[in-house]
Amino acid sequence: MSNLLFNTPLELGLRGLYLLKVSFPLKCSLDRLIFLDYLTIYTKDSDVSFDNLHPEYPLRTIELFSRREAIKKGMLLMASKGLVNIDCEEEGFLYSANINTNWFIEALSEEYSKKLMNNASLVEKRFRDLSDSELEKFVNTNIKSWGKEYSNFFPYKNEVF
Fold first, then answer.
1. How far apart are CA 10 and CA 23, in angstroms?
2. What is the pLDDT of residues 21-36, one digit of tens each?
């Protein structure tokens, strides 16, 4: 059986709704959504006292580079349903929550949604005062250490080919 939701624009768009809800009334660029999405899933990477939403794995930082188009398509999908606003401003396209965002999220009550809202809130509070470039600098400074907990996992790391 294949998973028709995992890592799709629909999944990433739904997570984007949570990020925009907790960021309201601020508008978010696509880059900011990508960084916040990663940090919401792997919250422990930004603060070890937090719990991750998804399990850690060694190459998780690849998600930062591979999800740009899916998140963009997810935001367009959410906008086509009236769940987010997209504004074209001097800085580019900016995404924001609206009344439908709140209504939709409040209708979701399963455990994953609660954890997602909690992590999104933690991440938003931690990074709210950072500009997009400061958030990018935080990610670029720390990305090399994320996943290091698996550095001894690969048995052939010292082998010469």
1. 20
2. 999 999 999 999 999 9
